[in-house]
Design brief:
Helix content is 35%, strand content 19%. With 363 residues, the chain is an alpha+beta fold. Helix 1 (5-40) packs antiparallel against helix 10. It starts with a helix and ends with a helix.
Length: 363
């Protein structure tokens, strides 16, 4: 037995020599991630945010900073529910593709097929709505938005609110980010599926993927572990401006947790909602009428990070800002959810993704 001890210790040394540097590297990256976050979210007694980094479908970093509720002094947790704002558009776009796969609609369909009285509806396709190339007036830029912000609106009422506004350009001429297009898509989802937008998203996406803490937003119903939203004024923080979520609707009215967002990303990666050839439509760069390409698919900005393709989208709604980046080539997913619209996580999440991408490329 004594003769074997040197061999045993040699094997132990070799094992620890190969494991320790990897563990040390991971710890080092996590410290760098945290340093980036703390440089932006400095006050632990103020609204903050929750952040997650996942690699190969599993979290490698998750942490929350600041308060979920300032009045009650409740700390944020990584399992708290945040309003997503425009990250909702990802779900709306995939819902359209799911209905297309079921044969209930086509992205080449024109609005007039579903809304015969829509102005110029025979020339505006679902593809134009999905890619923000429709030219329709964005309802969030209309002065009259303040008159309906707190009213209960049906999808038809929302469409009627903006449909007669002068268009900004002809369909397919330009890319210009547009919330009205996704409100129209939500209404078309209802008309094509025979169910409400809320029910379709909750039953056909959230339930299928096990996104148990995600839902259509509400300020009335009890939402366990809800992060409360804040805004920052000259004299300090105030509770967010109240809106009726029937107004942002399919363009920005969903809520979720970090874990549920990872379930969402993994579900897309594993083709749990769509066949690969159909899902690909969401992640394809398209062209304008003049042949010029632009960097938006269906519900995602399609960009490059250090020469590597990325899929990105953020969101902003009173009291909340959100951002998520997915790098398919390295299977890296980074999400940041904040509960003050004074804290934008956009650049922070992009910087974290770039850091993790660089670190993983060195291994």
């Amino acid at each position: 037995m004594k003769a074997r001890k040197p061999v045993f210790y040699l094997l132990l040394f070799i094992a620890t020599s190969t494991v320790c540097p990897i563990a040390t590297t991971a710890q080092g990256v996590n410290k760098q991630i945290e340093a980036l976050i703390l440089a932006e979210i400095k006050d632990k007694n103020a609204p903050g945010g929750a952040f997650m980094v996942a690699k190969n479908g599993k979290p490698i970093y998750q942490k929350a900073f600041g308060k979920a509720n300032i009045e009650l002094g409740v700390d944020l947790g990584t399992d708290f529910v945040f309003q997503l704002g425009s990250m909702t558009k990802q779900f709306t776009a995939i819902a359209i593709l799911m209905l297309e796969e079921q044969g209930k609609l086509s992205t080449t369909d024109v609005i007039a097929k579903y809304l015969p009285d829509y102005p110029n509806g025979q020339h505006i396709s679902l593809h134009h709505l999905l890619t923000h190339t429709s030219g329709i007036k964005d309802f969030t830029k209309m002065k009259a938005i303040k008159d309906i912000a707190q009213k209960e609106m049906t999808p038809k009422m929302m469409v009627d609110f903006f449909k007669d506004e002068p268009v900004d350009f002809a369909p397919g001429e330009k890319f210009e980010y547009n919330n009205s297009g996704y409100v129209l898509l939500g209404y078309i989802i209802e008309l094509a599926s025979g169910t409400s937008y809320q029910d379709f998203i909750e039953q056909q996406i959230f339930k299928k993927l096990g996104m148990n803490d995600s839902r259509y937003a509400t300020d009335r119903q009890i939402v366990p572990k809800r992060a409360y939203g804040y805004q920052k004024k000259e004299n300090g923080y105030v509770n967010k401006t109240v809106i009726n979520f029937s107004v942002p609707y399919a363009s920005g009215a969903l809520m979720a947790t970090l874990d549920d967002l990872l379930q969402w990303q993994n579900g897309l990666n594993n083709n749990l909602l769509l066949r690969p050839e159909n899902a690909k439509k969401a992640f394809t760069k398209y062209q304008l009428n003049n042949g010029e390409s632009f960097s938006y698919g269906y519900g995602w900005h399609l960009r490059d990070m250090k020469g590597t393709p990325s899929r990105e989208h953020g969101g902003s709604v009173f009291g909340f800002k959100t951002m998520a980046v997915y790098i398919p080539g390295a299977d890296i997913y980074v999400a940041g959810l904040t509960n003050c619209d004074c804290n934008s996580p956009t650049k922070l999440v992009q910087d974290i993704a770039a850091l993790v991408l660089e670190s993983s490329s060195k291994k």
